[in-house]
Design goal:
The structure holds 2 protein chains of 2 kinds.
Chain A: H1 2-54, H2 58-61, H3 69-86, H4 90-105, H5 114-134, H6 139-160, E1 166-171, E2 178-182, E3 201-206
Antiparallel strand pairs in A: 1-2, 1-3
Chain B: H1 2-18, H2 37-41, H3 45-54, H4 74-88, H5 99-114, H6 121-124, H7 134-151
Classes of the chains: A mainly alpha, B mainly alpha.
Chain lengths: 207, 152
């Protein structure tokens, strides 16, 4: 009888734990959805405002070296994210990841050539996944995805061009050597933050 | 007091039996897709076996269901993981991924195995045989790195 009770007790604990566990997961997803839709709304306002600005110029735009507003926004979001990682700020990096994800989702590739469209689509799809992970992970995992995201953004800029000068920087220590982009020549390392702020050098200037 | 405990226990037991009859969707398929990672890359037998044993339950369209996976609430727990795991990475869909995605996935796979994040601890609690030994880890990591280098 005693044994029976103990078994029942254990079963009860298991059941309760599993139930609460699944409940918690659900809740997390709920609040997540809520936030996303909020952010999405913001993103839309933003975008429509921006498209408006560009209406007049959009015809001649894409042939020249001018960067589309979408591409500009993505690079700006990437820089916000990079700065948050430099500052070891997990929360800020998460919200930057979310903003980036929203802008990637509304990224308009239609103005590019067919070949470029295909490449951009691959890039955006990949970058979206990294942005999503960054928006919900602890900082070590954010940095793993930031490395892959940096490659995406670099390749994106190679197609879209950039109006501001970007510096491709390189730190040989992190994960067998890792690159990132910055608006400043001065090296501030997003992979290590305060632990090794100055690891790295400028590898290339992108105009 | 004792009586209350007994009543609670009985109710829980009934609930536990009851939930066994709730229908669930099995993640099972007889089709071996042409796009599958193992089919496309054709790794050595030991690597295939390790990936099937340790990863395919959650990262493919075909989960192995030994008796304990058919018991609630384990089935629910697994169902949840399969849904999330497949959306992250589905080995059955491998050759549908762009080279860029493949590269990202391989890098993530390497990171996850290296950091012992995958297979998840909550899963290996029951599936002891899914845990990689150090030498198995090396074999899989070496293989994944080789595939990644061949992409470039």
């Amino acid at each position: 009888m005693k044994k029976f009770k103990a078994t029942l007790g254990i079963l009860a604990i298991v059941l309760v734990t599993l139930t609460t566990m699944s409940c918690r997961d659900n809740k997390k997803e709920d609040s997540h959805d809520g936030m996303n839709s909020e952010m999405m709304d913001e993103g839309h306002h933003h975008d429509s405002a921006m498209n408006h600005d560009n209406m007049g110029t959009s015809t001649e735009m894409m042939d020249s070296h001018t960067q589309s507003s979408d591409a500009k926004q993505v690079v700006a979001d990437y820089m916000t994210l990079k700065d948050a990682l430099v500052a070891d700020d997990n929360q800020k990096a998460q919200s930057a990841g979310k903003t980036l994800l929203n802008h990637l989702e509304s990224f308009d590739v239609s103005k590019y050539s067919a070949q470029q469209q295909k490449e951009l689509k691959d890039i955006v799809d990949d970058a979206k996944e990294h942005a999503e992970h960054i928006s919900e992970s602890p900082i070590a995992h954010q940095r793993e995805h930031f490395k892959l995201l940096s490659k995406d953004i670099t390749d994106m800029v190679a197609i879209t061009g950039t109006e501001t000068t970007l510096y491709q920087q390189f730190c040989p220590m992190y994960d067998g050597g890792s690159e990132w982009l910055s608006m400043n020549k001065e090296v501030k390392n997003p992979y290590y933050g305060s632990k090794m702020l100055n690891c790295g050098r400028v590898q290339k200037e992108i105009n | 007091m004792k009586k209350i405990l007994r009543i609670i226990s009985i109710i829980l037991l009934i609930a536990l039996v009851g939930i066994q009859f709730v229908p669930t969707e099995r993640n099972q398929s007889d089709i071996e897709p042409k796009t599958d990672f193992l089919l496309v890359n054709n790794p050595p037998k030991n690597v295939s076996a390790l990936l099937r044993e340790s990863c395919y339950d959650c990262h493919s369209n075909n989960t192995d269901y030994p008796w304990y996976n058919k018991v609630q609430p384990i089935t629910w727990f697994l169902e949840h993981h399969i849904k999330e795991g497949k959306s992250e990475l589905n080995f059955n869909e491998w050759s549908n991924y762009s080279d860029r995605r493949k590269n990202s996935k391989l890098k993530s796979i390497i990171n996850q195995i290296k950091d012992a994040e995958m297979p998840p601890a909550s899963y290996t609690l029951i599936h002891r045989e899914a845990i990689f030994s150090n030498s198995e880890k090396e074999v899989v990591l070496d293989y994944m790195k080789r595939i990644r280098d061949s992409l470039k």
